[in-house]
Each structure stands twice: as C-alpha cells, then as structure tokens.
Structures
1.
Amino acid sequence: MAEGFLAKLSGFFSKKPEQAEGFHTEAELAAKLKEYYPDGAPLVSIVAVLYNKAYAVPIFLEAVYRQFYPGPIEVVFVGDKSPDRSIAAARKTAKSLVAEFSSRSHPVTVRLFTNDEKLGNCFSLNVGREKAAGELIVFADADCLLNRLFLAHNVLALAQGHDICTGPVLKHHNTETAAKALLNYEKKPHLVQKAVGESFGAEIAVPELHVYCDCKTRNFCAKNSALPNPLFDELYSLEKGAQKNCCVEGADMGQLLAESSGLRMTWSPGAFTLRLGEPPIKILAEDDDDD
C-alpha cells in the first residue's frame, strides 16, 4: 500500500490547473452568472463527511447559508458513525438556520445520511456523491468554512468552460474566532494572497506545490457528469473502523483527475476556504441533544 501511495504522489502534479479570473465583487458575480444562466443558476450539492465534527458543523452550515449564490443549494452530510453526535449537531443547526435565514431568496436544503458502520472517508464521499442531486458538486471538509463568494466564484469558473475549480485553503487554529477571521478575509482579499504566499497576478499561475496539494484534494467544485465514477477509491480508506478519519484518498483522487483526459482544471483565488484547527477535547465530548 505504501509503495502504491508513493507512486501516486510521484505523478500528483502532472497536470496543473489554469489560472481563473481573480477576485470578483458581488455585483460582478451576479452580472456574470446572469449572463451564463439567464433562467437561473443551477443546483449545487455540497458533500461533506461527518466524523468528530460536531464542534465545526454550526459555523460550517452558517457559512453555507451566507453564500451569495443566486441558485439553490443542498448540503449532503454523510455520518461515519461518529462518537460525538455530529449528525445531531447538523440537524439542530439546520433547523435554527432555516428560521434565521428565512428571507433568503434561494433555498438551502440539508440532507443527512449515516453509515451502518464506520467505513471511512472514501466510502462516505462516494455515498454522498450518489445521493447528491446537483448538476455541480462540491466536496468539502466539514471543518472548513466557505467564504461568502465561494460558490459564485466556483460556478462562474465552471460556466466559463472548466470542469473542476479549486482555490486556497487557509489555516485558522482558533475555532472561536474563525467566523470573525473569515469576515476579515472576505473584506480584504489581499490578506488571502498574503496568507497563501502568492500574488495571484498574471505572472504566477498556480500556488506553491505544498499549498496546491492541500487545495487540490479538498473543497473543490466540479461538474458531476465530468468526474470518474467512483471518484474515491475505497481501498484507500485506511482508517476504516479506526478512531481517526484520516486517509490518503485525496492523493489518490488528485492523481485520478490528473490522468483523466480532457478534464479542464482551474484555480480561483476567490474560491478560498478557512480550515479550522482541532477542537478542545471537552467540545468533542459534548452530548448534543436532538431537539
């Protein structure tokens, strides 16, 4: 298994993405999306696996409800027998956000599924894709916050002829201040550039390799019909039945996409996300009621 993993990594960067347009304002995105989708923007499905993510689910979902996207959104959660009641947290949060964002012009639907046993990320992500109804699909980590213009930038890139779009994944290790940090990045895009260590100018097409590796395997958007099936190789769910949910499915999937002929990949700085740090033990142990 280790040799196979290293072999995949050796070719991981064989296909670099094209540089997408830079940061857009809400007005620019609305006008461009209206041009491409005069009859309404398509449904986007966001697929995320829940394992020890109860601490992150509330702010993850709030970031989804905050999206400036002129079309319907569905979130497909797949619970992988998490010990921390992640599914209960998702159900409770979704119920409260429906009321809080009742004036939203386009609906957000949250759908919950659970595995009968712990089967790992690869299996769970494939299940999520099967359940997803969207023409466009986002595979996201539930401990990452999507910036307010994340979906709009992604959908615009795909509308312009690309099959896959990814963007920067920024690190933030304080869960309590994550929402405030996200707002700051949204207001000051140059901080995103600084955090990634790139100018995103015409002279630099893609980020440094270690940053690109982290981005290519998480929080990306794609045309569902363009992706291989299955997308994630379940043989790489090394953590099946284990206490952690970490495996090498990202590198395997990244290499599979790189080898897929005809797929157009793009990198959009406006499609950035904020990755949370690990929660305190006391948060993991909280018993969240269903009501």
2.
Amino acid sequence: MFKIFKKQNKKDNQLPKSTQQILSETFTNLIAAFDKDAKKLSPPDFNLCLIEILEMEVNNGGFNLYFVNSYGGYIQQTIDALDTIGSKVFKEILQKAKKLYPSDSISEDRSERVELIMDSEGLFEKLDREFYAAYSKEDIHQMLLDYYNKHKK
C-alpha cells in the first residue's frame, strides 16, 4: 500500500500528526479490506489491523468486548502480531486474557463466545486495568509505526 509516515511540510501551518493519528488514519483505510477478506492483506497490514482492533475493542469495553465481538476469534494471531512488533507488555496481558478465557479454546463462532463471556461478568476487570496502564510502560504506537514503516513496501 504505502508508507504511513510522511514528513510534514514546514510551510503547512498544521501541527505534525501524532503517531497515534497516523496509525488511526491508516487503520481506517485498511479495516474495510480486513473485514472483507483479511487473508488478502499483506503481513504488515494484517498485523496493524489486529493490534489496532485489540486497542479499539479493549479501550471501548474491555476484554469482554474484545472477545464478544467478531475480532475475538483472532486472539492467537494478535498475540503473534504483538510479538512481531516487539511488544512484551501488551503481549503478556493478552496471553493472560487468553488463559482466563472460560474455555480451553476460543471459538471463531461469535455466538459461542458471547454465551461464555456473558456468564463470566467481571472476569477481565483486573486485566482491563493492566491494559490501560500498559501505555505508560510501552509505546505500542511507536513500535507499531516503526514495524509498519520497516516492512511495508
């Protein structure tokens, strides 16, 4: 697709975009392709989507929302994506969430995940707080941007 970090023209009277804004704009451009057929995305695009989706879901409703929504079936691929960009903190938290999940395997069937999560109220509250605090321990946005720019052709 394209490199997502461009130098700002100093003649522009605009503030430079933050790393998070750049990632968010790129994600917005990719999410439709992800939803249509994620397998067709390049590895950098796929990994960016997985990590941005994780953040979006957990920050909007905790791990309950992440597991209940359709993207929860991508948990192992998301763990792998976090590992690929070099994340230790967020990867560890997601691995803990996977272990807490009230079943030995995480079904790709959304209705099965909804049923299990609805019976497990409050299960992920501690991990939700750990996730929110992780931003002060690891700059996941910069890690993702660096990875994406290095590997995207």
